[in-house]
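Q: A reviewer asked whether we had any structural model of the full assembly, not just the individual parts. We don't, so I'm hoping you can provide one. Inputs are below.
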Amino acid sequence: MIGSRTLIAFSLFLTLILAMAPLPNYVEAFRPDWVLIVLFYWAIALPHRVNVGSAFIVGVLYDILLGNVLGLNALLLSLVVYIAAVNHLTIRNLSIWQQALIVAMVTAFYHLVDYWIQHFLTTVYFLPELLWPTVTNALMWPWAFLLLRKYRRKLRIR
Amino acid sequence: MTPLFANGPALQIRIIVAVVLSLVLMFVDHRLKGFDSIRVYLNSLVSPILYAANLPQSMLDWSAESLSSRRSLLDENAKLRETNLLLQESVLRMQFLQRENNRLRALLESPVRQEIQKMVAEVMSVTSNPNSHQVLLNRGSLNGVYEGQAVLDENGIVGQVVDVAPTTSRVLLITDITHAIPVRVARNSVRSIAAGTGSMSRLDLNYVPHSADIRAGDLLISSGLGQKYPEGYPVAEVSRVISNESLPFAQIETKPIAQLDRIRYLLLLWPPNAPSQPAKSSLKEIQRETKELIQ
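A: Here is a predicted structure for the entire assembly that you could use as a starting point for your response.
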């Protein structure tokens, strides 16, 4: 039997691959933040397994992959997962569309803080396109949720 | 079993540690540049993920290549033969001009221009953040790629290498908001700096006085003054000049010559004073390839 940790790590590895997969330029702006979605799911489903520490490690890897300043996504994902883990009992009891709404708000928070820190470090301007993932993440959440729940239940990850 | 009480430190403590740690990471990386030497190892650590992410695309390419019909291949071949013939003619002409230029430069006692070495690279992935325009190439320090190297496509300058791993390297495009390139108007050698705007189809010339002779349609070429880019390669074309006298400077918008949104194969350049040389094996490979192409 493969351990729960390995299976969760494997899902996060696949997520990073998905997040880096090349997309045509015109869909690029709508790319959902897969890493955020999957970490959010694990944080509300199994907060004793996936919380701030795992988010931090995944965030550093994501930063290296994106060529960002090291620690940017580590900070953002840790904060997002912290929000999810603290409120996991509440979020679990919401309906799937209400959860999608929460994901949208968290994504908006993620991208605004991301923009704010990048603006602080370099001279980027605010582009409204930055907030498209808010919509796509919310639309993707139900499917990601169902898929990951199936993965968790089938393989008895606890 | 799910523990009733979480073990280990409380969430609040963990988040505080994570926030402090990531702020320290950002400070060390951005301000002190403390990770520049380790970045190579970090990049090679994650390169399996990048290769895996690139797998579907390379498989699609491979299947498209192996499934394309005889007819289309013949057509393409004929077209390539034709362009090859035309290019050969311009190469002959260029060799003649180069010899003449070298002779003239020798008469003027200026240093003779030296050969620039090149290597073809393929784009593996494009970063998803609209605030950073970067692409990843499938050549790295093992091929002799170095930081600050100029990267071109068949039309013009694309960007420069900012990050090198053993088998991959990251290229900052000229349209990135943090990038600027020294340019010169081809028509009259007016110097300026073309800065990225964060839009793939626009570069801006900043701090140009109203009196400067720059018109829409002018070609901007690299001036080579920043020591990063070799001189004389096309960079952008001026698309709009707004001369509003109430503003201190003229606003000049330009459009990159290289098609940055559809780059696939790129050229890496090694000028004579490059800190590293292209790896021998792949250089030989390229020479063999070009020889085969010519024959």
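A: Points you may want to mention in the reply: The mean pLDDT of chain B is 84. Chain B touches chain A through 52 residues (CB under 8 Å).
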